[in-house]
């Protein structure tokens, strides 16, 4: 079922989750052990992130260094199929521009269509680890809106090979990312939402936001989007803060603000368990407030701390 259909037919709060593929060499059992407890809450869909290859330098026998590309987290398409088979729940693969050609993207979409996947999340992706600014694949897309165009083109039966006549039309529901505190590369929130609106005009069906820790950012963002005639569902992205290191790491990596009260409570926590409790209580209050204000979905970035999210959901429902 498409995300938009879930939202249209919802009779109560919708839960969704997001996971990382395991690193190469690890078993998919690490995914199952992560998700098994959370399935008690019947998530409507599970997002699976997609990861570009990274360039590393390996020393050769002659003493020189050779540049090698490796994918540390392969398996997004296979994991989506496994999740759908094991849990009978919709899986949403991320698609990214960085590191992928248009041909590779089309082949991934064909595989996903064969597997019965009906939803994708179209993202530009981050710059490579060794780059200051994002650089697209030489045969790929520079912007997420170009990726949305490709998915929508395939939905109309338009393939890269022009000699394919009467090609099968896919029917993907397309999600895109939104940034309540604006994307770090955008000069201001209005410009950021202008480009969001362009992707929606090209066919994107819903928005999933970057994490935030102050619900006011989400409410202001939704209101601002409505001012720009963005009328698709905007799903709030949520993540528990669970250790003191995140107080500097999360703002640095994700360019989001951490409220003073949350920081103070985390700094006053004396043990790892106390840190978990701080994050749990903060996330619980965020969820209660979002539900009270009719947020369409509670979308949890489960990376690393599924137990905290389990505790929050147990107390909510």
The coarse silhouette is globular
Radius of gyration (CA) equals 20 Å
Major sheet size, sense and barrel closure: 8 strands, parallel, barrel
What is the terminal separation in angstroms?
24 Å
Look at the helices and sheets and give the structural class.
Answer: alpha/beta
Could you tell me the strand content as a percent range? 15-25%
| CATH level 3 topology | TIM Barrel
For the biggest β-sheet, the strand order reads 1-2-5-6-7-8-9-10
Number of individual domains: 1
Helix content: 40-55%
CATH architecture: Alpha-Beta Barrel
Query: What number is the mean pLDDT?
Result: 92
Q: Low-confidence runs (pLDDT<50, min 5 residues)?
A: none
Count of helical segments?
11
| CATH class membership | Alpha Beta
From N to C, what is the helix and strand string? HEHEEEHEHEHEHEHEHHHEH
Q: How many strands?
A: 10
């Amino acid at each position: 079922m498409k995300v938009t259909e879930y939202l249209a037919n919802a009779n109560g709060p919708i839960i969704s989750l997001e996971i990382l593929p395991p690193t190469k060499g690890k078993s998919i059992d690490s995914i199952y052990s992560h998700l098994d407890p959370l399935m008690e809450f019947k998530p409507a869909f599970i997002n699976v992130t997609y990861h570009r290859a990274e360039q590393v330098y390996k020393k050769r026998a002659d003493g020189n260094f050779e540049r090698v590309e490796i994918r540390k987290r392969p398996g997004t398409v296979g994991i989506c199929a496994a999740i759908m088979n094991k849990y009978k729940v919709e899986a949403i693969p991320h698609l990214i521009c960085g590191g992928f050609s248009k041909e590779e993207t089309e082949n991934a979409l064909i595989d996903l269509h064969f597997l019965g996947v009906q939803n994708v999340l179209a993202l530009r992706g981050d710059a490579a680890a060794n780059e200051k600014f994002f650089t697209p694949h030489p045969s790929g897309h520079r912007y997420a809106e170009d990726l949305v165009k490709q998915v929508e083109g395939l939905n109309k039966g338009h393939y890269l090979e022009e000699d394919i006549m009467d090609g099968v039309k896919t029917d993907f529901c397309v999600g895109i990312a939104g940034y309540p505190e604006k994307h770090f590369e955008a000069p201001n929130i209005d410009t950021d939402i202008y480009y969001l609106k362009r992707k929606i005009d090209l066919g994107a069906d819903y928005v999933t936001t970057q994490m935030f820790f102050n619900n006011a950012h989400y409410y202001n963002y939704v209101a601002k989007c409505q001012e720009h005639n963005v009328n698709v569902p905007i799903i709030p992205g949520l993540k528990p803060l669970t250790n003191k290191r995140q107080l500097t790491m999360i703002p640095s990596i994700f360019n989001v603000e951490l409220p003073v009260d949350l920081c103070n409570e985390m700094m006053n926590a004396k043990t790892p368990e106390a840190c978990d409790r701080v994050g749990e209580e903060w996330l619980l209050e965020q969820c209660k407030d979002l539900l009270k204000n009719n947020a369409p979905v509670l979308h949890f970035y489960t990376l690393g701390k599924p137990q905290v999210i389990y505790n929050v959901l147990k107390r909510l429902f």
